[in-house]
Amino acid sequence: MNRAAVIFAALLVVLVPISLLAGRVWISPIGAEGTANAALILMELRLPRAVLAIVIGAGLGAAGAAMQGYLRNPLADPGLFGIAPMAALGAVASFWFGLASSSWGVPVFALAGAALAMALLAAIAGRSVSDGRAGAGGGIALFTLAGLMIASLAGALTALAITMAPSAFAMSQIVMWLNGAITDRSWAEVWIAAPLTLAGIAVLMLASRSLDALTLGEEAARSLGVDPRRLLFLLVVGTALTVGSGVAVAGIIGFVGLIVPHLVRPLTDRLPSSLLLPSALAGACLVLLADSVVRVLPLVTELRLGIALSLIGAPFFLWLLIRMRKGRL
Amino acid sequence: MLEANNLSIERGGRRVLSDVSAAFAAGEITAIVGPNGAGKSSLVLALAGLLDPVGGAVTLDGRSIHALPPRERARMLGYLPQDTDIAWDVAVEQLVALGRLPHGDRGRDEVEAAISMLALEDLRHRPASRLSGGEKARVLLARVLAGTPEWVLADEPLAALDLAHAKALTEHFREIADSGSGVVLVVHDLAVAMNCADRVIVLSDGKCVATGTPADALTQEIIKRVWGVDADWLGKPGQHALVIRRP
After folding, report:
1. In the predicted structure, residue B184 carries a pLDDT above the cut 70
2. What Rg do the C-alpha atoms of chain B give, in angstroms?
3. How far apart are CA B42 and CA B68, in angstroms?
4. Which of A275, A280, B9, B174 is least surrounded by CB atoms within 10 angstroms?
């Protein structure tokens, strides 16, 4: 465990109790009154919500670090693979067809969307990734374009589904869900997302040394024994599991995968392998913190987590672009 | 012995190497020369096992390198690309240590030996973005050497280097060859090939048109035929200069 991982693990240890106690109803860690209600709020509302925030944040952070390493680009985001938009489209379909009432409806459709994105990526771009005859760099570039096209198509179909929603209620459900939140989530969602996300992070970890080799470029990486097809497979599966399961239980939560590796990178030796675990921990911290903040903001209705993170993330992205223009990145 | 046997390569639907046969010996520097588009980079990529042939094969001590698992191949053949854009601002020591990836270990001794050989001790903590062109070239060669390959295959390693850095890097390649490894260099400067290589392979339009000692492969007649220029070699062995005749 490197220094950055220790720092963010320690921060997470501090944030978890704060997150459990914070909310519209503040729970005193030492107060005795209202013990039964407090225990109920803690165990059935706050704890699953905190665990879900940690799981989703960890998945997005790790996927962001892996994606930036794979594309050798600090502006890369897990959304570039088109997996998150396809998972969102799957979830939207469950609302559209009225199958979202069961706790499994939305996640199952969203995971099916993520799986479809994976299959499309494999079919369109998988064959092109450096088979020894493609031009240098052509494989990853084509793969990225394929991901962007899938994302674009999923976005268009989602917009179509909203405009042609069967009822105003369904439309409202879709829009609210797309904004991303972990309000009112239960242990059921935790049991869906946690195993898949952990499996996804483990898969991404398997790719870590190959991502290090990509620091020197695609050709040099292959000369170091990296198998581009295996690397692509690990990246797509790892991203689908982490991002897909996150979208399945919480909707679209953007910018975490973009911001977190930037926060972590200066604390490491900057190799992608050094970034994966700290990014997972930092992502967990960021989503947990953001979810705690939206809970205590004095608004009539709770600010959606996805909106809150976008409000933080978009200016951060602009700041990154300005720094890149000045050659400081 | 590294050999290309009747090697044919296609890239982007175009035949870039046709029926090329050449043998490369350990302990020697072999220079691959030829005009732009002659297939030099494709040949060195194929020798590194990074391009699959449409005909023929590359063999290492009689074994086809295409049949080797990628990591095993990477342990034997160290490839130095022409242009390396280092994606992250990694320190020199970490960059050199990337050469150990095929071995799956940290290889501290090998990394230290490579750093020492290329005289990078004072730069070990310097980030990649703060290296000059010459320093970067040394670091990237050290990365290859950290993998202790039997063969070093470098695509235009001297391009974009000034005279002093090109001379220093050439001397490092000689040290590597003298240590028993095989060195294959793609070079544009025929004087470098003439003075520094033990053997030269001349490519033109994807075909091997001459091979042998520098004096045999880089004759005035071959230079005229391949590059279309009349030129004379001046000076003595090891210090030759190529002078192009005025029309």
Report:
1. yes
2. 18
3. 19
4. B174
Q: Which domain holds residue B103?
A: 2-244
Q: Residue B157: helix, strand or coil by DSSP?
A: coil
C-alpha distances out from residue B46 to A58, A239, B43, B67, B176, Å = 41, 33, 5, 13, 21
pLDDT tens track for B188-215: 999 999 999 999 999 999 999 999 999 9
Tokens 């005279």 correspond to what residue? B163
**Residue A249 near residue A238, CB atoms below 8 Å:** no
Between residues A114 and A327, which one has the greater pLDDT? A114
- Domain CATH for B19: 3.40.50.300
Contacts of A225 in chain B (CB under 8 A): 69-75, 101-102
Q: What structural domains and CATH numbers belong to chain A?
A: 3-325 (1.10.3470.10)
Q: What mean pLDDT do residues B122-138 have?
A: 92
Pairwise CB contact (< 8 Å): B11 & A133: yes
- Give the residue numbers in A contacting B (CB under 8 Å), as ranges: 72-73, 131-133, 135, 209, 212-217, 219-220, 222-227, 265, 269-272
Q: How many domains does chain B have?
A: 1
- With beta carbons less than 8 A apart as the criterion, state whether B88 and A215 touch: yes
